Amino acid sequence: MLVVMLIMTASSAMAQEAKFEVIGGLRYLLDTGAKTATLMPKTDSKYSGDIVVPEKVNGSDGMEYVVTSLSEKCFSDCSSIKSITIPSSVTSLGNFCFYGCYGLTSISIPSSVTSLSDGCFYYCSGLTSITIPSSVTSLSDDCFCGCKSLTSITIPSSVSSLGNFCFSGCSDLTSITIPSSVTSLGDGCFSDCSGLTSITIPNTVTSLGENCFSHCYGLTSITIPSSVTLLGDGCFGNCVALTSITIPSSVTSLGENCFNPLAELI
């Protein structure tokens, strides 16, 4: 009996710590203990139009809550969203936060955010520009995958890693500069970036993941720095315009089908 009572008491306490509320047309999970709010997906419809996320909200209990995060799939498949304003109180963007926001053309990420989560902007096909603050240290897997209208992006020197398929399918991306803070490029990182003609890889990078640049049909030349020791399977597969490439002596491992069969290896 005592055990049952303790479990019921604990469950009741947890229920009192968090509650859902719709405030100003936006749905939140309110943490009554920490006095913080997480923006959540709607349950009955999708967000649309111009979204302005406030820094603070007032709950039905009369208390003030600071908005600190956007939940996983918060705006997933909200294809009618035109713009989103994120306050500086937000420190976390959940996985697939903006997945499929086709109508979103630009967004500014506040400097309070330190990482872009998995699939954060996955298939935001209308996104043409984005500002990544210097507070961000990593771009996770699939972060900008399928952002086919993205023409340019500046990666800040605070970023140390580019996740798997991070920019895969960004077909309008013509060039990109990777900062010297980056040490590795994930699998498929720039795969299917068919408009990419040039890329600068810093001498801090030690490995290029599997299919890293596969199907980059417009890539005509690339310099692999002497810091690189590994080229993953299919790294430059089907890069049909890449007719010659210089491999530094530092490379000790070449993956299977690493290059276009017609490429001249120097």
Automatic annotation (TrEMBL):
Signal peptide: 1-15
Domain of life, source organism: Bacteria
Name of the protein described by the UniProt record: Leucine-rich repeat domain-containing protein
Keywords, sorted A to Z: Signal
Signal found in the keyword field: yes
The UniProt record lists the keyword Magnesium: no
InterPro entries: LRR_5 (IPR026906), LRR_dom_sf (IPR032675), Surface_bspA-like (IPR053139)
